[in-house]
Amino acid sequence: MIDFTANSSINEENSIDILLIKQLISANAFLKKGQFKIGFQILNKTKIIAKEHQLFSILHEIYHTKIEYAHTDLQLNIDDLVSEFKENEQQLFLQENLNIAYAKIKNALLKANQNKNVIDIKVMIETTLKEQNVVISEALSFKSLCQLMQVSAISSFQKFDYWSIEDFIVSTYALIKNHTSRIKQLYYHIEILYLIANTLFRNKKFDTSLAYLEEMQTYMQKNKGKYRKEFSGKHDLLLALNYNYKGNQQEAIAILVPYSKQKNVDIVLQLNINLSLIVFYSQMELFEKSKKIFSTFYHTDKWYIEKVGIIWTIKKNLIEILLHIDLGNLEIVESRLGSFKRNYFPYLKEMNQEKVIVYLKLVETYFKNPEISNSTKFHEKVENSFNWLEKEKEDIFMMSFFAWLKAKMTEKEIYSVTLELVNGF
To answer: Would you report the helix, strand and coil content of the chain in percent, each value rounded to 5?
Structure first.
């Protein structure tokens, strides 16, 4: 079974890695049979391609083999060869150290998420990178940069502070964006462009985010659209979110509706798309449409936490509470409020996210006494309850939740208030 699976995978896999491994095996076969000239020719050809693709582990084997048979070619400069070997060894060491750091960080975050433990993510990331001697430089491959950006994005996702990583990811990408491997490491390049576009969206820089999405789309067409299917859903969801907050909500909905009807869509992507559609419809005050989509969320919170994390689950529950208030389902609102307090207030306090707790208490005050929504006393209470960051730093989704409350206070449409808050007009 192992032989069959391996052979089938090799036959189906047309990646550069498999091609170079085959060439390396062939070179070794010729060298062992004393066909040194042909063996070295194959090794040199393999080395050129491996360098272009920054495949340091394969290069390590190439240099190891060349050094082993260096005595068969007196014209070969052994000192230059050893120097190249050591230089590649440093690159491999950096890549492996970053891979170890990435694994440790992801493992720590997963455990913290499952156990609802609170850790200082930024300190943990900095400490782990330091322990593994990882230094940011233009020597990083696209894969390494992608891993760094992913852990940084995880940190910002937990803390709602995407503004803190924007300069880092944009400037780091600028260091290597013109590297020769930008096409060779296509998958990671596309992922990096997505991470940057997402960060810019969360920071309300919609036009710049759209520019990176356009660049992402360009690279998705490369290599005969090899990764187009894999990334199209993520790309389109982020595109729709940008459109929604730029005021093009109908276009945003039109992008996502086809995905909501598709089967065999990645579960995380499907959940994010459905939750976004619920928000879009609710902003338009089409609450019955939101309710219909919400009926697809029939799993337990534990299941959602395992699949998409506790932050997503908290947002889902908050949105559900607001939706039932709008639908007038009073008993359900009472039940959901009590459940939310029991399950998530301790976590929010530990994460220093008292802003969410304060928000829900104000929502509860409005729910129990809606006629006070336009009173001066309630307005003052709301105004004095939040310590808002500067507009550029405040999280876009946090502002969206507040827009719902402000719409009740001002008796305006939710979507128009949302655009006023997010775009400042």
So the answer is: 80, 0, 20
